[in-house]
Amino acid sequence: MSTVTIFHNPKCGTSRNTLALIRNAGIEPEVVLYLETPPDRAQLVKLIQDCGLRARQV
Question: Which domain holds residue 51?
Fold first, then answer.
C-alpha cells in the first residue's frame, strides 16, 4: 500500500478536517507541517510529476 502524505496547517480548518477524514478511514498519514518545513524545488517537481501534471496546470 502506498503512503498517504498530507501537507498540513493545523490552524486551517480544511486541513484539520481532511486529516481527520484520513485518520477516520483507518490510515495514519505522514504529516508534513509545510509552514515549518516547506517543500524544496525537487519535492515540488516530484509532487507535480506524481500527479501527472505540468507546473502550469497547478
Answer: 5-57
Residue with cell 481527520: 20
- Domain count of the fold of the chain: 1
Residue for cell digits 477524514?
Answer: 21
* Whether the Cβ atoms of residue 31 and residue 6 lie closer than 8 Å to each other: yes
Per-residue pLDDT for 11 more than 70?
A: yes
For the entire predicted model, the pTM comes to 0.81
| Residues catalogued as catalytic | 12
Three-state DSSP state, 47: helix
Residue found under cell 485518520: 23
3-state secondary structure of 32: strand
